[in-house]
């Protein structure tokens, strides 16, 4: 072993250490080296304070935040280095302190020294990643440093046994279990230490890398530890504090290879040689070459530190005394004391901490703009994810249902239009010609109907679903029904039978309309129910509300069907007080039928009438002086007939009235019956297509709206003594949705808090 050897300068005086690490008197407070010293400028202090504030928000789970990770092989002296920096004692029980990560969040404070221990679980009992890290404060704050070691030891047991309540390890005996549930864990113990002289720094002591496992060990632990270390050091903002024990061959310490894999150019790795007092005799020169950055060079160089042994700590050596002994070792022991002054700054823990602090603060300064940008991107992404989540339970779902019912009403109009066309298609298709002469005949639609109902209703006879009724068939039925009536008078029963044969066809379209409205309403209600209740009670509330409203809608539909039957029964007997409307249509249809009949007997007359209606004669055109510019066309044809009738005092005759001037037709009574029935159809069908939708709307739509809330209250049992309990059970959001929303909200809160911290320093 290397023995301490006093060295002298050329003038014989004792050699002094490198100025950065001048020996200091023991601190009145027994702290570690720390970073909270007066030599740190204000800018660096602000950056280190900001880093700790960012970590306090928990945003490191979402954004790459600068951190120092201490890695090395087992027994490389990592924990001793952590102890010297933090000023606390870590557990020394075999196999415990290196089995899970220990994150340290150190901050300088003028308040009394305190340490808060927390457990942070990122995986569940089965090792599956949690959507949101679970943090548990592990006991009250510690104000006595001597109690920290035991609390950490208990916390590590809780981490290694996630299937057991943490309270057992916090309050039970301070004894290791015969066998832990896990040998290693990615979940970590977090130490939040603050007080005078405490470092402003965040770092993590990771489990030591292992090359093999002992008897009864799990080979998977090798990969587990490597993956755990990789999850930290692979981040671009992680400063790797690589510890290498000088008592073991460098090539046998795999931590360096892993660090080099993720930092191949050595830009963010700080090498730390530990246990220099255990270098075998004759091998000192090789290790000095690391300090001189000749072997495995790093941008931030290699350092060498000497920490107190476990026995030293057991004997009560304070950290202040340990730092003094370290300084004496490097000042008086060859070959360390003989290093050139330019390399002396890479010896001693104080110099290492100073350099680590500088590197970390510089990294924070460079990363701040990038962190802010990443925070904003993450915030937008989180807000978008929250917006895409199912809507939270509405405080007034009933009002929302009513609003959507109004939207539903607009869709109902489409089905009402279809019903109107269906009823119109039942119009009697009277043909004022004998059946025997209509083989190649197509009767056009009356133009006055086009003006009233549009040209797309039923343009030709062929579009109708009703069979044609020819004039000789109407005459035959009239003659058969006639008894003692006067000539040309035929019993009303003829008209009534035609009307009855028409209205009996109305039940099917009316029922179809009712079914359509029921289907549309039920579809809308299912969508509304799903929208409001799908995420509640794991579907129980949605199912119960669906059944209640389905029964409610069916009952309303049955009432509407009864109304339809009643209205159809009213239409079975011809009746109207709208005699003017009926008479007007009778005249129009009678003229139309006569014109059609004359088109076969006098085709030239009908053609002339149509031509006159299409191309009316032009009147004379006069200028402002009253002189004729364009002479009026001399009347001829239909115009001449109308002019002649006007000359003899017969005024108001229309072109379509001219067929009435023709000699009487033997089929005149039949055409009159046809015109009366067809005119009555116009009156009755328009009345019917108004009344049926009105009745359906009254029973099915308005009825549902009026009774929906009492029906739901009654069906769900909310009016009873257990109403509050039922509400709490049914309206409870599903754990999956609630958990996801809570995760996103917490992430948003973390990101927002971190963003505010950045803004507070003027970024």
UniProtKB/TrEMBL annotation:
<dbReference type="InterPro" id="IPR003130">
    <property type="entry name" value="GED"/>
</dbReference>
<dbReference type="GO" id="GO:0003924">
    <property type="term" value="F:GTPase activity"/>
</dbReference>
<keyword id="KW-0342">GTP-binding</keyword>
<dbReference type="Pfam" id="PF01031">
    <property type="entry name" value="Dynamin_M"/>
</dbReference>
<dbReference type="GO" id="GO:0016020">
    <property type="term" value="C:membrane"/>
</dbReference>
<feature type="domain" description="GED">
    <location>
        <begin position="670"/>
        <end position="763"/>
    </location>
</feature>
<dbReference type="GO" id="GO:0008017">
    <property type="term" value="F:microtubule binding"/>
</dbReference>
<dbReference type="InterPro" id="IPR000375">
    <property type="entry name" value="Dynamin_stalk"/>
</dbReference>
<dbReference type="InterPro" id="IPR045063">
    <property type="entry name" value="Dynamin_N"/>
</dbReference>
<dbReference type="GO" id="GO:0005737">
    <property type="term" value="C:cytoplasm"/>
</dbReference>
<feature type="region of interest" description="Disordered">
    <location>
        <begin position="1"/>
        <end position="23"/>
    </location>
</feature>
<dbReference type="GO" id="GO:0005874">
    <property type="term" value="C:microtubule"/>
</dbReference>
<feature type="compositionally biased region" description="Polar residues">
    <location>
        <begin position="1"/>
        <end position="14"/>
    </location>
</feature>
<dbReference type="GO" id="GO:0005525">
    <property type="term" value="F:GTP binding"/>
</dbReference>
<dbReference type="Pfam" id="PF02212">
    <property type="entry name" value="GED"/>
</dbReference>
<protein>
    <submittedName>
        <fullName>Uncharacterized protein</fullName>
    </submittedName>
</protein>
<dbReference type="InterPro" id="IPR030381">
    <property type="entry name" value="G_DYNAMIN_dom"/>
</dbReference>
<dbReference type="InterPro" id="IPR020850">
    <property type="entry name" value="GED_dom"/>
</dbReference>
<dbReference type="InterPro" id="IPR001401">
    <property type="entry name" value="Dynamin_GTPase"/>
</dbReference>
<dbReference type="InterPro" id="IPR022812">
    <property type="entry name" value="Dynamin"/>
</dbReference>
<dbReference type="InterPro" id="IPR027417">
    <property type="entry name" value="P-loop_NTPase"/>
</dbReference>
<feature type="domain" description="Dynamin-type G">
    <location>
        <begin position="62"/>
        <end position="369"/>
    </location>
</feature>
<keyword id="KW-0547">Nucleotide-binding</keyword>
<dbReference type="Pfam" id="PF00350">
    <property type="entry name" value="Dynamin_N"/>
</dbReference>
